[in-house]
């Protein structure tokens, strides 16, 4: 009569049987973000002049760095609590935006303030998103 209480469920048995695989979107989204970010960084640095090798290298390096960081955050995000996960997304966005603003030859204060403002906005939005969809 109490056998149903001791039998493991199908979901629990399958969850431990095979490791979690990442979908193609988990690889494609950081790659696309990195390519767009790299093109935009090179475009900002170009400033209407001819393209140079240094601009191409800057675009490739910044796009690759953002893609690697997004991929790493996507892999570990499930193990982080809601607040820390939102803080990670906010700080990654703040650094990315601050770097793009710094490429426009404005002051360090402006790039810091804009990066922090966008980072705080992303932190608040992602914290609300993660907290409202808590299992």
Written account of the structure:
The structure is a single chain. By secondary structure, the chain is an all-alpha fold. 78% of the residues lie in helices and 0% in strands. The protein has 6 helices and no strands. The protein has helices at 3-6, 10-17, 24-46, 53-76, 82-102, 108-132. Helix 3 (24-46) packs antiparallel against helix 4 and helix 4 runs antiparallel to helix 5 (82-102). The chain is flat, with a radius of gyration of 21 Å. The model has no long low-confidence stretch (mean pLDDT 87).
Question: Could you give a quick summary of the protein structure above?
Answer:
By secondary structure, the chain is an all-alpha fold.
Determine the fraction of residues in helical runs and give it as a percent range. Answer: over 70%
Shape: flat
**How does the major sheet shape up?**
none
What would you report as the Rg, rounded to the nearest angstrom?
21 Å
Low-confidence stretches: none
Give the helices and strands as they follow along the chain.
HHHHHH
As a percent range, the share of strand residues is under 5%
N-to-C CA distance: 31 Å
- What does the average pLDDT come to? 87
Q: How many beta-strand runs?
A: 0
Helix/strand layout:
Layout: H1 3-6, H2 10-17, H3 24-46, H4 53-76, H5 82-102, H6 108-132
Helix pairs in contact: 3-4, 4-5, 5-6
For this entry, give a set of tags.
135 residues, mainly alpha, 0% strand, flat
